[in-house]
Design a protein that fits this description.
120 residues, mainly beta, seven-stranded mixed β-sheet, four-stranded antiparallel β-sheet, 11 strands, globular
C-alpha cells in the first residue's frame, strides 16, 4: 500500500532553515507527481509546492516563492522541501501528498505530517 513518511520538522528561529523529507513506498514513485501541503492552526490546508515525476517542472505558492525549493530523488524514492528564511507564519504541519487514479476516481494519499514551528 502507499506509504508516505515525512521527517525533518522542528523548532527553528525566524530566518532559519529546515529540510523536510518524505520517503515514499508502495507505488511507482518515479512516475508520480508529488506535492507538499501545509496546515497552519485555524487555517485551511494550503498547497505549498509540487514537482513533476521527472523533477523537471516545479510550482510554488506565492507565499513561499523564492524561499522554498522542492526536489526529488527517484533513486531513493524521496521528495524534499528545502525551506529557507523561515517566518512565524510558516508555522504549520507539513504533509507530503501524491494522487492516484484508481477505479475511475482520483485518490489522495497523505503522510502523517511533520511539525514546523518558527519562533524566537
Amino acid at each position: 500500500q502507499v506509504q508516505l513518511v515525512e521527517s525533518g520538522g522542528g523548532l527553528v528561529q525566524p530566518g532559519g532553515s529546515l529540510r523536510l523529507s518524505c520517503a515514499a513506498s508502495g507505488f511507482t514513485f518515479r512516475s508520480s507527481a508529488m506535492r507538499w501541503y501545509r496546515r497552519a492552526p485555524g487555517k485551511e490546508r494550503e498547497l505549498v509546492a509540487s514537482i513533476s515525476s521527472a523533477g523537471i517542472t516545479t510550482s510554488y505558492a506565492d507565499s513561499v516563492k523564492g524561499r522554498f525549493t522542492i526536489s526529488r530523488s527517484n533513486a531513493n524514492n524521496t521528495v524534499y522541501l528545502q525551506i529557507n528564511s523561515l517566518k512565524p507564519e510558516d508555522t504549520a504541519v507539513y504533509y507530503c501528498n501524491t494522487r492516484k487514479y484508481v477505479s475511475g476516481s482520483n485518490i489522495d494519499y497523505w503522510g502523517q505530517g511533520t511539525q514546523v514551528t518558527v519562533s524566537s
